[in-house]
């Protein structure tokens, strides 16, 4: 469905001489990504409303998306699969944040941040067969992923120190992201072998 909508938009823009035919593939891909992201954000908003969890959803999106952009990892085969996985991860973060209490709120966030940092430093970025990286891109994305992780981890630690639950959400988000990264790395190794 997203592909058909993207094709309709691009065809209309070519017909109106807004785009040229040689730009077709680039803009098809761009519109598919834009529409998919829009649907995912809309679903995230619905989840925030249904679960009465605007802070966890917002913090998850703000911490997960930038870091995921540079780390790579698991990629669903279809836009629908991506939407389902994204929705599942958002619900998971909301539920974990809600049930995490007591001593676990003291121990788990720094542990998650430390482990995710180690995994990101070891494995990021993880290319995918749908998104291969050359050597220059790999170096660039590795550096960016480490910088983004460092900034977000520092913010998470500050929140955690002051007892702000957003620190827990950042830690959970990083833990999930690092697991997706490791899964993507090992999935790619199996495909290449």
**Count of individual beta strands:** 0
Overall pLDDT level? 91
Principal-axis shape? globular
What structural category arises from helix and sheet content?
mainly alpha
Q: Give the strand content.
A: under 5%
Termini separation: 34 Å
Q: Report the helical percentage.
A: over 70%
**H and E string:** HHHHHHH
Total discrete domains = 2
How does the major sheet shape up? Answer: none
Q: Treating each run of at least 4 consecutive H or I residues as one helix, how many helices?
A: 7
Low-pLDDT parts are none
**Could you tell me the radius of gyration in angstroms?**
18 Å
Describe this structure in words.
By secondary structure, the protein is mainly α. The protein folds into two domains: 50 residues, no CATH class; 140 residues, no CATH class. 80% of the residues lie in helices and 0% in strands. It has seven helices and no strands. The chain is globular, with a radius of gyration of 18 Å. The chain starts with a helix and ends with a helix.
Architecture blueprint of SSEs:
Blueprint: H1 2-15, H2 24-50, H3 54-71, H4 79-99, H5 104-123, H6 135-161, H7 166-192
Helix pairs in contact: 1-2, 2-3, 2-4, 3-4, 3-6, 3-7, 4-7, 5-6, 5-7, 6-7
Quick structural summary:
This protein is 80% helix and 0% strand.
Question: Which features would summarize this protein structure in a list?
Answer:
mainly alpha, 193 residues, globular, 2 domains
């Amino acid at each position: 469905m997203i592909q058909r909508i993207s094709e309709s938009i691009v065809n209309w823009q070519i017909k109106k001489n807004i785009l040229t035919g040689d730009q077709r593939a680039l803009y098809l891909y761009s519109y598919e990504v834009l529409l998919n992201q829009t649907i995912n954000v809309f679903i995230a908003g619905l989840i925030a409303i249904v679960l009465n969890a605007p802070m966890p959803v917002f913090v998850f999106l703000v911490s997960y998306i930038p870091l995921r952009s540079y780390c790579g990892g698991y990629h669903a085969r279809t836009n629908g699969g991506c939407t389902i996985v994204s929705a599942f991860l958002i619900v998971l973060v909301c539920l974990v944040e809600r049930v995490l209490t007591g001593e676990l709120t003291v121990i788990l966030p720094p542990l998650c941040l430390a482990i995710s940092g180690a995994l990101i430093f070891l494995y990021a970025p993880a290319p995918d067969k749908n998104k291969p990286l050359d050597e220059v891109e790999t170096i660039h994305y590795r550096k960016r992923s480490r910088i983004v992780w460092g900034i977000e981890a520092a913010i998470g630690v500050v929140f955690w120190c002051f007892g702000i639950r957003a620190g827990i959400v950042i830690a959970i988000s990083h833990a999930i992201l690092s697991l997706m990264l490791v899964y993507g790395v090992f999935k790619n190794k199996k495909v290449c072998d």
